[in-house]
Design goal:
70 residues
């Protein structure tokens, strides 16, 4: 077998040291907080857009405003 290539059997094996219960708990936490995460992203986007608009209103070019919003 070529170096760096694994067999299908090796691919299907559970990786050593993986705590599936911990991964399941992490997924449950993500599911339970998803609505709040979406709200945070929405508010962050509104703030970024507000900053961009304010920079344009103050005379910055679109390019300059984008750079300052990075």
């Amino acid at each position: 077998m070529k170096e760096g290539v694994i067999s299908m059997a090796e691919f299907k094996e559970e990786p050593p040291g993986v705590d599936l219960n911990a991964l399941r708990r992490d997924i449950d936490i993500m599911r339970s907080t998803m609505a709040m995460q979406i709200e945070v992203h929405t508010l962050t986007a509104k703030l970024a857009k507000s900053k961009y608009d304010a920079l344009i209103a103050e005379g910055f070019t679109e390019h300059q405003a984008l750079i300052l919003c990075k």
